[in-house]
Amino acid sequence: MLRQSVHAFVSSAAAGALVEQALADRRLLKLELTRLPGGLAEAHVRYTSETSPSLLVLEATAPPERLIAELEALAEVCVAGTHLILLGSVNDVALYRDLVRRGVSDYLVLPAEPARLIEAVLELYRDPGRQVSGQVIAFIGSRGGCGSSTLAANTAWELARRGDADVVLLDLDLAFGGADLAFNLDAGHGIQAVLTDPERIDDQFLGRFTAKYGERLHLLPAPGTLELEAPVSAPALEAALAALRRQARFIVLDLPRHWSDWLRQTLHTADQVVVTAQPDLLSVRNGRNLIDFLAARRRLDQPPLLVLNRVGGTKRGEIGLKDFTETIGLAPALTIAEDAPTFTQAAAAGCMIAESNRRARAVEAFGTLATRLAGTAAKPAAPAPAVGWLKRLTGKG
Question: Are 151 and 366 contacting, i.e. CB atoms less than 8 angstroms apart?
């Protein structure tokens, strides 16, 4: 989504709160909100002498019979390409259908949930020609050695194996990542191309720059060197992920634990976050910090998925499930028992757990996580209306 301007004309506290919460969401960061008092009449006065923005969100207080006349007057002063979402208090299916038939993008009855307005706005800016709208899934560990990278790799493999869609795995621990060793592949320089020149991500990118594992899994391993050409930057990674969303159904990020601006931004904007922990004090402390951080910045999202790994690995110092859950403040979505021989065998062979030992208990856990993540993926965009509200009301456009 390119940067767009949004003007919201609202007069009630409910409408104002709805707009403020929705437009602060991570998915709408490219929208610049200007909140203004009033409704359709005030908007009409403003755009008589000023160009209307990309999107108008208007609180409609007039009765239905007068609302259409006010819309027609507003359409006369707005430029072609201006989208319109109305907020109102009249819960009438016939009114809703009439407004949509006339080209209004959406009509939300107050009070409404912020998620409803977010989805209405996102629908306006989706590319109707895009066949893929990839989901970014970020994996991060609460401590070293808890198995976050292994979880990311095996889940990416399961997503590629189970679904008829391409999956890209990015190992973003550039200096110390080991995705190349996990899959026994050459690291190459694909990830450097992504981070230094995101414009390279064209229709042939997956074939030219990624290491392929199986039919659907594409890897961008870390270079595994301390002599990096350039550090990760938030704008470059954001541009790369936007481009990769058009190439693959799932983009799995294996994140390092080195706290930085780009890492915070990535955790903020990812579609789903998976936090891996193990049942000890360090994981509880660090995991709680991560969960609190995500809760503060992803208020309208589902909580992160917490995976409790290496359960039963050591009896000394291990925290029980009940105490772990109460302390960290989030119930694990999945628990994986310690099975060092199985994981060591797969690592030595450079393959995934299911390829090394399909009967291992962890195989079912990886499959369960992949199924859950696939179930939350965004659906491909529906075609946008061919004619906007301005043309339907006035013949403009």
Answer: yes
d(CA 138, CA 218): 16
Give the phi and the psi of residue 252 in degrees, each rounded to 5: -95, 125
3-state secondary structure 241-284: HHHHCCCCCEEEEECCCCCCHHHHHHHHHCCEEEEEECCCHHHH
Cα–Cα distance, 285 to 142 (Å, whole number): 8
pLDDT for position 389: 55
Pairing of strands 217-220, 334-337: unpaired
* Cα distance between residue 338 and residue 324, in whole Å: 17
In contact, 250 and 155? CB cutoff 8 Å: no
52/269 Cα distance (integer angstroms): 29
Residues 141-185: tens digit of each pLDDT: 999 999 999 999 999 999 999 877 899 999 999 889 999 999 999
Q: Which two tokens stand for residue 322?
A: 């009940």
Whole-number CA gyration radius for the chain:
24
* Highest mean pLDDT (candidates 74-83, 84-93, 278-287): 278-287
- Residue 346 carries which side chain, given as an amino acid letter? A
Sheet strands (E) in 211-361: 211-213, 217-220, 250-254, 272-277, 305-311, 334-337
Angle, helices 114-125/13-23, rounded to nearest 10 degrees: 50
Q: Could you give the domains of the chain?
A: 4-129+382-394 (3.40.50.2300), 135-375 (3.40.50.300)
Closest CA to 103 of 81, 131, 136: 81
Q: What is the mean pLDDT of the chain?
A: 87
Q: How far apart are CA 174 and CA 223, in angstroms?
A: 6
The end-to-end CA distance of the chain, in Å, is 21
Look up the pTM and report it.
Answer: 0.74
Model confidence at 221, pLDDT cuts 50, 70, 90, reads very high
